Every structure is written in C-alpha cells, then in structure tokens.
Fold:
Amino acid sequence: DTGVSQDPRHKITKRGQNVTFRCDPISEHNRLYWYRQTLGQGPEFLTYFQNEAQLEKSRLLSDRFSAERPKGSFSTLEIQRTEQGDSAMYLCASSSTEDGYTFGSGTRLTVV
Amino acid sequence: TQLLEQSPQFLSIQEGENLTVYCNSSSVFSSLQWYRQEPGEGPVLLVTVVTGGEVKKLKRLTFQFGDARKDSSLHITAAQPGDTGLYLCAGAMPGNTGKLIFGQGTTLQVKP
Structure:
C-alpha cells in the first residue's frame, strides 16, 4: 500500500465551474476525512466517513459541496459553482483508530 | 467553539538552539497529536499523546500532554535546518469519531 492518494494534485478552474477531487485511502482504513487548509492556517474539518456512511459534516460544507464514499473505498469531493473563496488545499486523510491520521498530499484548488 | 491556540506562530532560530511550541485550549481532548507539514504536502504524524501528563520523546523532539488534557508542548533540542517546517497540533474530540481540531500552526525556520 502506498499511502493515501489524492488526484489531481493541482486544479485551476474558472469561477462558476464544477470540480471533483478523488481520494484513495489506505485499504485497511475504515475512516476517511476531508479537510480544507488555507495559507497560514491549520486544516479545518469538512466531513467524515466510516466505511460508506457519511457520519458528520461541518457547517463549512455549504450546499455547493458534496462528498461520497461508495462501497467504503475511495471518496470524491465535488464543489459546484466554484467561488474564489473556495481556493485552498483540500486534504484527505484515513485512519483505522483515533491514534492518528495518514494524510494524502492534497489537491491545491485555485479558482480564477 | 473548540479552539486550539498555538504559539508562537512564527519562529526563526539558528542551528543548535532549543525551542518550545505551545498548544492551549479550554477544551478537554481524548488525545492530542502533533504533525509536521512541508510546503505543498499533507501533514505527517509525529506523535500521539493520550494520557494526562504523558511525555514522549522522538530523537531530539519531546512532546508533553498537560495533566488536564487541555494543552501540550513540543520541545526541540539542538534544532537543525532539517527541522524547518510547519508544526501543527491537533486535538481529537471526545466521541470516537476521530475528528481533529487543528491549531493554526507554527512555522519554524532553522538557519544554518
């Protein structure tokens, strides 16, 4: 297993377009998390899956954001009608316990 | 609102000096984790502390969890240029979701 993979690494999109990011967690991990990080800040929690069930969503996750984890494997995060304020690093992490995450390298989104 | 206050936000020191980073909250956490992040990459877990008063050492890094499980510190002895990076503390919320609240990070620069 090569760790948590995120694709793409970088995405530049025009305001108003939709974007989708993919995360492939470590295969044995049943928990998957999405976080967003802006420059100079720590990551902020967006949402959490245990297997295929989305158990918690932050109020940061507006109606334009949706996340899925079909069959409890990979996950996707979609942002509809992107805005400049959506520009950030989107981080995915997986874990099997509360003892710490393994993060992916992130997807850097730039909305122009 | 649960907050983790990390200090200092920026630290620039000479090689060989010692330093301490602090992470404080009014909330009790079930565990506290420290991560290090390089530019353009996801955070990498350094350590997890679980028990109040716990001290863990990782080579030249010493981590301590406060007795009340509300605060933590990271001490680096004889810093080296390879220690340069963003250090993040993160508290795990009680409730077994594994959700983390991150501090805003400490950017450390160690000059040769």
Observations:
- The interface with chain A takes residues 4, 6, 30-31, 33, 35, 40-45, 48, 88, 90, 92, 96-105 of chain B (CB under 8 Å).
- Chain B has a mean pLDDT of 93.
- The radius of gyration of chain B is 13 Å.
- Chain B has no helices and eleven strands.
